[in-house]
Amino acid sequence: MQRRNFLLGGAAVMVGLTGASMHGMRVAEAANDPLATATDFGAKLMPEKIVKIVKTDEEWRQILSENSYLVLRKEATEPPFSSPLDQEKRVGTFHCGGCDLPLYRSETKFDSRTGWPSFYEGIKGALGTKTDFGLFLPRTEVHCIRCEGHQGHIFEDGPAPTGNRHCINGLALTFKPDGPVKSG
Predict the structure, then answer these.
(1) What is residue 78's predicted lDDT score, i.e. its pLDDT?
(2) Distances (CA, A) of 43 to 27, 33, 76, 124
(3) What are φ and ψ of residue 15, in 5° steps?
(4) CA 20 to 30 Å from 100, out of 65, 125, 161, 178?
(5) Taking a C-beta distance cutoff of 8 angstroms, is the pair 73, 64 a contact?
């Protein structure tokens, strides 16, 4: 069933994939650099080489909730103000809900008052774009570079320093707060 919009009945089931321990080590290393910018910090979270993830439609359906599947794989849009990630204020990294690639740092998040998590820039090398004519006028769609999961759209009405607003579906993301690295 392909739908452009759908009602969200409850909290989204966030997809957690492997890599948490390696993520913690990279966060600790980047957090120790007082001169690091949000983009630098995010770049340190990126894998050295990004290997494309290709799955069948059935494989995506098995690992994603129905609503996340509709957003990430069928380019649906969640209802505004439905995602708890719109109100997320902790320091950390927003990852792709399909493949766990780090996409956005919390330092680039801002309150656009649109009802969707918004960022003025993504982590360098993590995102791809294409022109979307779904509403008859061209828009810039943004997707994860690794699994090509639909994230949302980029508009040119955001804050400095980029002037961009990445309007992202919360169902397309997971959030990992920064924290101390646990040994052992």
Answers:
(1) 97
(2) 10, 13, 28, 6
(3) -90, 120
(4) 161
(5) yes
- Residue 1 lies inside a defined structural domain of this protein: no
Q: Based on the number of CB atoms within 10 Å of its own CB, is 120 exposed (0-12), middle (13-18) or buried (19 or more)?
A: buried
* Residue 15 maps to a domain: no
Q: Which neighbouring-strand residues pair with 146?
A: none
pLDDT for the residue numbered 136? 76
CATH number of domain containing 86: 2.170.150.20
Show the tokens assigned to 29. Answer: 């290393």
pTM: 0.74
Residue 37 falls inside a structural domain: yes
Alpha carbons 116 and 118: distance in angstroms, whole number: 6
Assigned token pair, 26: 């990279």
Cα dist from 32 to 27, 41, 65, whole Å = 9, 10, 36
Boundaries of domain holding 126: 20-177
| Residue 147 annotated among the catalytic residues of the structure | no
Query: What's the pLDDT at 42?
Result: 55
What stretches in the chain show pLDDT beneath 70? 1-46, 180-184
